[in-house]
Amino acid sequence: MSGRHGGPGRVVVGVSGSLGSLAALRVAAEQARRGGRRLVAVIAWEPPEGEYLYLRHPDRAWAAHWEQEARQRLDGAFADAFGGLPLGVEVRTVAVRGRPGPALCTVAHRVDDLLVVGARTGAWRSRVRRYVLRHAECPVLTAPAPRAPKGVARELRRATAQDFALRV
After folding, report:
1. HSE-up of 84 (CA within 13 Å, CB side)?
2. Which Pfam families match (predicted)?
3. I need a labelling partner for 4 at 20 to 30 A (CA). Which of 51, 83, 97, 105 fits?
4. Rounded CA gap, 77 and 100, in Å?
5. In this structure, are residues 110 and 5 in contact, taking their beta carbons and an 8 Å threshold?
6. Considering the domain boundaries, does residue 27 fall inside one?
């Protein structure tokens, strides 16, 4: 498959560090490996005070700090999911300032791209999934988060992504 910009489409994955996004990252890496495509991992970020307040009192150093924090979370997701970058896949990481849904649709703009998102319950994640399903110009694949066995929900609330990392 060849895109309107030349070359095969990419596999674009939304990463937040949640268990659902780590599952999506693993699925996306496998899809990229199988198809000989580039993996583009995207993390969206906004200033913690929100864009409106930031625009009233802009501070480039403050924004650069939060962008760096987002990039570190993205690197941490790769460490949690694979212990580093996945083997056999060309990887590009992108930190986009903005809301997750629009950011993912902006990056995955080619019709032959594949957009992968985690399928975990929760208002924020559901909002992102609903947004990309409505607005993406490419196919969307949802990857389910690991399911908890009955009776362990309390313990899982204290778990970290490292507890679910693949052991090699």
Report:
1. 3
2. Usp
3. 97
4. 16
5. yes
6. yes
Give ∠ CA 23-69-74 in degrees, rounded to 5. Answer: 25
Task: Classify the C-alpha dihedral 5-88-29-102 as positive or negative.
Answer: negative
Residue type, 30: E
Would you say residue 43 has pLDDT above 70?
yes
81-115 pLDDT tens trace: 999 999 999 999 999 999 999 999 999 999 999 99
Q: Does 135 reside within a domain?
A: yes
Helical ranges in the chain per DSSP H: 19-35, 51-56, 60-82, 100-107, 123-135, 153-157
Handedness of CA 58, 18, 110, 68 (dihedral sign): positive
Question: Does a structural domain hold residue 104?
Answer: yes
Domain count, the chain: 1
Neighbours of 104 (CB within 10 A): 27
